[in-house]
Amino acid sequence: MSEGALSGLLVLDLSENVSGPYCTKLLADYGADVIKVERPGAGDPARQAGPFPGDRPDPEQSGLFLLLNTGKRSITLDLASERGAEIFKRLVQKADMLVENYRPGVTAGLGIDYAALSGINPSLVMASITYFGQDGPCRDWNGCDLVAQATGGLMALTGESGLEPLRLPLEQAEFQAGLNAAVALLCAIYFRDETGEGQHIDVSVQEAVASILEGALTAYSYSGYVMQRIGPRHQHKCPSTVMRARDQYVHIQSGAYWDHFAALVEAPQLMEPRLASVFRYRYADEVEAAISPWVERHAAEEIFDRGQEWRIPVAMVLGVEELTSDPQYEARGYFQQMDHPRAGRLAYPGAPFRMSRTPAEARRAPLLGEHNGAIYAGMLGLPRDYIAELEDQGVI
Fold it and tell me: Where in the chain is the domain with CATH 3.40.50.10540?
């Protein structure tokens, strides 16, 4: 592997499922040496989550696991055993960062919370990701992505007016929390490099959701205004919504010049003063009714092309099956093909941002315990017969 932006940093990854693994995936793809510590025999529960090639469950072929664990090394270790805890603490002495997303109190019960580990390595930066944070009355509540979206305020804003709240698809809250943790870790590493001092980072998935509510919270704080669900429409921009074109859905939004937009969609009635004003969102039904005949007559790609000619931000709504063949993604080489010894050759999303000097370098996800030998014999110098004994006892 070429030198990455985070080369030289050793990260211990105790996390499972989505939030923590996404955090450490970002670090690994940009050069950090991430050692994923998994439970002997079972590994990360994400290994049991689909999709699987051919719908045949296999812990080495989980699409979720393969996506979230690129570039990492995997070891198996029973942290609850005395020998396992001893070996883990030897790894901590060498580590720069540690990421975990157990429930609050679990690491303390295992004797590997920040208070214990900072005594072993005072410069360690440790991130703990939980659904509600390390303190507060909800600290010990069970959580999931849906719970975080609900209690973070996002669901209340998602869905059609007058109907029930909806969750955003996939694990959006977990991914946001993982991103927040990665940013926090890099901030803490910068501080550590300046002072020599490590620290503990407390990431709440609920708060990660509340942090992305745009102006909803400030609007309420300023004036008591409560934003309501309005489906695909924007709260104040009009039009800014999804409409059906002749062949598929498109997103329709006006540009900077309203008269240009009215001319594009061949709707001169949009120039009436009340519809041309900045308060036209109050008449969204009328605005969209004036636009829809033109939209329905044209194909989505034609709408997109003509919108770009007029510098008006309309867009086609692409399905997942269309992304890998989209010319923009193809031109930038966003999707990357990687070979895996069990899952075969698959397309993976590329780097979420690009660095000119130290670009991300994606490498396949590890097999369960694939790097036990390299870590235990190579890094820690444990004798081979002792490693075999640990295997027989189920410690690794």
Answer: 10-211+332-392
Helices (H) and strands (E) in the chain, counts: 17, 11
Q: Please tell me the distance from the alpha carbon of residue 359 to that of residue 332, in angstroms, as a whole number.
A: 13
Query: Which pLDDT belongs to residue 220?
Result: 86
Catalytic residue, from 200, 234, 251, 260: name it.
Answer: 234
pLDDT exceeds cutoff 60 at 1: no
**DSSP sequence for 202-231:** EEEHHHHHHTT-TTHHHHHHHH-------T
Catalytic site residue 234? yes
Q: Which architecture characterizes domain 10-211+332-392 according to CATH? A: 3-Layer(aba) Sandwich (3.40)
Note whether 69 and 362 are within 8 A (CB): no
Over residues 137-152, mean pLDDT = 96
Q: What's phi and psi for 89, nearest 5 deg?
A: -65, -30
Q: Please tell me the pTM assigned to this model.
A: 0.93
Q: What are the tens digits of pLDDT across the range 186-244? A: 999 999 999 999 999 999 999 999 999 988 888 888 888 888 898 999 888 999 999 99
Q: Mapping DSSP to helix (H, G, I), strand (E, B) and coil, where does residue 11 land?
A: strand
> Could you give the CA distance from residue 20 to residue 13 in angstroms, rounded to a whole number?
8
Q: pLDDT by residue (tens digit) across 291-308?
A: 999 999 999 999 999 999
Instruction: Find the DSSP H helices in the chain.
Output: 19-29, 63-68, 82-94, 106-110, 114-120, 145-151, 172-195, 205-210, 216-223, 258-264, 273-276, 284-297, 300-309, 320-323, 327-332, 372, 384-392
Burial 163-199 (b: 16+ CB within 10 A, else e): eeeebeeebbbbbbbbbbbbebbbebbeebeeeeebb
User: What are the strands of the beta sheet with 10-13, ordered from one edge?
Assistant: 73-76, 33-38, 10-13, 97-100, 125-130, 199-204
The pLDDT assigned to 227 comes to 86
Pair 62, 77: CB distance under 8 Å: no
Report the DSSP pairing between strands 199-204 and 125-130. parallel
